[in-house]
Amino acid sequence: MSLLEIEKLSLRIGRTQVLKEIDLAIEPGEVMGLVGESGSGKSMTALAVMRLTPAASQMKGRVTFDGIDILSATEAQMCALRGDDIGMVFQEPMTALNPVKTIGEQVAEGIRWHTRASRAEAEAQARKILDRVGLPEQKFPLSRYPHELSGGQRQRVAIAIACALKPKLLIADEPTTALDVVLQAQILDLLKELVRENRMSLLFISHDLAVVTEMADRITILRQGMVTECGDTARTLSEATHPYTRQLALASMHVPARVRPHIDETAPDTLLDVANLTRDYPGRRRSLFSKPEPVRAVDNVSLKMKPGASVALVGRSGCGKSTLARMILALDTPTDGTIKFRGMDITRADETAMRRARRNMQVVFQDPYGSFDPRHTVERLVGEPLHLLERKPDRKERRDMVGRALHEVGLSRSDMEKYPHEFSGGQRQRLSIARAIITRPKLVVADEPVSALDVSIRAQILDLFAEINQKLGVAYLFITHDLTVARAITDDVLIMHEGRIVERGKTSEVLDHPQTEAAQALVSAAPDLHRAIARRLQEQG
Amino acid sequence: MTIYLLKRLLIGIATLIVASLVVFLMLEVVPGDPARLMLGMNTSDAQVDLLREQMGLNQPLILRYLDWIRGLLRLDFGKSYTYSVPVIDLIRERLVVSFPLAVISLTLSTLIAIPVGLFAAARRGKAGDTAAMAVAQVGVAMPNFWFALLLVYVFAVWLRLVPAGGFPGWGNGIWPALKALILPALALALPQAAILARVTRAALIEVLNEDYIRTARAKGMPMRAVLWRHALRNAMIPVLTIMGLQFAFLLAGTIIIENVFYLPGLGRLVFQAIIQRDLIVVESVVMLLVAAVVLVNLIVDLSYALVDPRLRARQ
């Protein structure tokens, strides 16, 4: 008998049908991957198993866990199941823990609640599981607070909470999406080990096919609240007979067709020249009288970019890549060193000179939802950088320019009157790009521009970046921790580690034959669909 | 943590200095000569001038200010122009009424508001929430003197449980004094509780949307336990802020209620002193209140740090 059996589960919230007749079964000890794009109902399926769906949702069908009918169980029965027989780990480790309670309290709480153990017993047990998830006592006593831990460490605490009572089923909802690739690989290994040790079943939810392939024995693919395909992971993905499965697989490996853009001959040879750049931040004060040690975020970095070049800046989270980008954009002042943009030193430029420089460098941010004021129209948002122009365009010229920028990113002129909430995530990222190119800049800095997007949308946006690079001769500095993106869209790569650039060269060469330890760690941790499928097929013989 | 508190303390002291300057200069520019007021309109200029000399009013501004500050620091506030008794005695007399009244009101209001806020937040959008918030809305809107009159009518006139007004002093035992304070405290507490309950509810509802609440639910804790153990403490910061403001108001903003109940509190003292141009009393009470507000804010800041470990870690 299956441990978890979902039969014809439908869920609606108000008038919206979120899930339509979902079927899914997990055997004891099995890892089931649940894949789909955002809004496909993956998380809602998981929450339905926990019966933690939003208050307004109505469910039909059957969910049976270990012989218990979940949909008709009482709330008390569900409380007894949650955290004891079913554990759950969520996506966002930074906010998943209560900021005002120690990690010891938070892990021990569930243990005490379910086993009626004494405080001391529960704490001893919490200590053991924290040791197990890689948070040893010397460095991580129970008295630590969440804000004293990094994202990866917090996710380990969340896993400790979920696995403290050795549940029969663990549900992990995008547990590594917010982490960099090296941390992701570590957390995935930890989950695999825990599943094996405790003979747990795992429902592993992800949008990333490569990650799911590494983890799951079987895979269920969701689309718009319906199951499109279900089966053995390696076979389903290697054969890819179902059109949607094939579409997903192709999109996640998509490489835009790129032609080397023609280099602007008249421009000075070097577009951007960063020399010996350093940025210190004031550190935390240890005592009242000693001066705090500064934290060096960027350490003596030099780099050059030619006009029209496409360069990736790759590194783990916290390596200083965003600080470096902020200084290049003149949003932050270096402690030491110079940045020359088109021959002008922008670290010491006055306001007028800066305006000219700003017109020629624009930025695209990661989060297409947070980077627009929801009360402004698209015309105003996309036209924002126009105030940097020498001569202010009049209203008609302005509309023409916005219209052209929208057209260039594949949107329509009539979208000008709309507001940001009327667009999907991918369309909003197009708006960001339109805003970035409207002043015809020479350099666009893109900070993780596709990591918040679904694979098929991501493929389209990468195509768009490639097309604009070619058409307008814009140089790109792509900041990313995703090597697939770096490989797809850049010619050169800079690997950053602890504030320094430790390796640089042609993207394909560096990523195929990484020399430094930092680069090797990134490359070996990066999920790769081909490799994962091959490994799985090999294991199965 | 120490640095955080030291910083707050310095800000508090700076506030006191600025406030003292403002208070001193304000009363300096207000028309009306206290010496003439004390002696009456028919006195000769020479006599008034003599008194001015005695009171030190003819000295340069800066000397008088420093003199005044030196007095404040030794709790020597000078003598009241109208009553010719030390101001500190007048204040002490009134403070034994006003301070307990403020403490009782704030305690009552907290004891009412937090459970109501929890109750409403747990039933967000349902009948219980709507009813609780409707009552709170009435509480916010109702003038407290009118509510005070209602209380007098029901508990003093009709049920005869407590006196309708006046204050017997603490010398005649604690119980009669408390009985005299309970109705005014209630009249002050309920509107405050209404505001505080709404703030508590709003803060809780915001916290309930946080990811860590979902984590706690996934541990198998029922909603009620999650509210008490995880949500309440995180929602305390806005609640504590409002409580601090309310306490400061309760110390001196209670003149209407003091009048309704014939209570000899600080509010009435200041009011009379302003009418009689008893500037020295006004100055002293205002400075006392500023000090009280600074102290309350310091306590609130300290309690923030107790509630939230992230503030303890910050500089």
UniProtKB/TrEMBL annotation, chain A:
<dbReference type="InterPro" id="IPR003439">
    <property type="entry name" value="ABC_transporter-like_ATP-bd"/>
</dbReference>
<dbReference type="GO" id="GO:0005524">
    <property type="term" value="F:ATP binding"/>
</dbReference>
<keyword id="KW-0813">Transport</keyword>
<dbReference type="InterPro" id="IPR017871">
    <property type="entry name" value="ABC_transporter-like_CS"/>
</dbReference>
<protein>
    <submittedName>
        <fullName>Peptide/nickel transport system ATP-binding protein</fullName>
    </submittedName>
</protein>
<feature type="domain" description="ABC transporter">
    <location>
        <begin position="4"/>
        <end position="249"/>
    </location>
</feature>
<dbReference type="InterPro" id="IPR027417">
    <property type="entry name" value="P-loop_NTPase"/>
</dbReference>
<dbReference type="InterPro" id="IPR050319">
    <property type="entry name" value="ABC_transp_ATP-bind"/>
</dbReference>
<dbReference type="Pfam" id="PF00005">
    <property type="entry name" value="ABC_tran"/>
</dbReference>
<keyword id="KW-0547">Nucleotide-binding</keyword>
<dbReference type="InterPro" id="IPR003593">
    <property type="entry name" value="AAA+_ATPase"/>
</dbReference>
<feature type="domain" description="ABC transporter">
    <location>
        <begin position="272"/>
        <end position="523"/>
    </location>
</feature>
<keyword id="KW-0067">ATP-binding</keyword>
<comment type="similarity">
    <text>Belongs to the ABC transporter superfamily.</text>
</comment>
TrEMBL record, chain B:
<feature type="domain" description="ABC transmembrane type-1">
    <location>
        <begin position="95"/>
        <end position="300"/>
    </location>
</feature>
<dbReference type="Pfam" id="PF19300">
    <property type="entry name" value="BPD_transp_1_N"/>
</dbReference>
<keyword id="KW-0813">Transport</keyword>
<protein>
    <submittedName>
        <fullName>Peptide ABC transporter</fullName>
    </submittedName>
</protein>
<keyword id="KW-0472">Membrane</keyword>
<feature type="transmembrane region" description="Helical">
    <location>
        <begin position="99"/>
        <end position="122"/>
    </location>
</feature>
<feature type="transmembrane region" description="Helical">
    <location>
        <begin position="134"/>
        <end position="161"/>
    </location>
</feature>
<feature type="transmembrane region" description="Helical">
    <location>
        <begin position="285"/>
        <end position="307"/>
    </location>
</feature>
<dbReference type="Pfam" id="PF00528">
    <property type="entry name" value="BPD_transp_1"/>
</dbReference>
<keyword id="KW-1003">Cell membrane</keyword>
<feature type="transmembrane region" description="Helical">
    <location>
        <begin position="173"/>
        <end position="191"/>
    </location>
</feature>
<comment type="similarity">
    <text>Belongs to the binding-protein-dependent transport system permease family.</text>
</comment>
<dbReference type="GO" id="GO:0005886">
    <property type="term" value="C:plasma membrane"/>
</dbReference>
<feature type="transmembrane region" description="Helical">
    <location>
        <begin position="231"/>
        <end position="257"/>
    </location>
</feature>
<dbReference type="GO" id="GO:0071916">
    <property type="term" value="F:dipeptide transmembrane transporter activity"/>
</dbReference>
<feature type="transmembrane region" description="Helical">
    <location>
        <begin position="9"/>
        <end position="27"/>
    </location>
</feature>
<dbReference type="InterPro" id="IPR045621">
    <property type="entry name" value="BPD_transp_1_N"/>
</dbReference>
<dbReference type="InterPro" id="IPR035906">
    <property type="entry name" value="MetI-like_sf"/>
</dbReference>
<keyword id="KW-0812">Transmembrane</keyword>
<keyword id="KW-1133">Transmembrane helix</keyword>
<dbReference type="InterPro" id="IPR000515">
    <property type="entry name" value="MetI-like"/>
</dbReference>
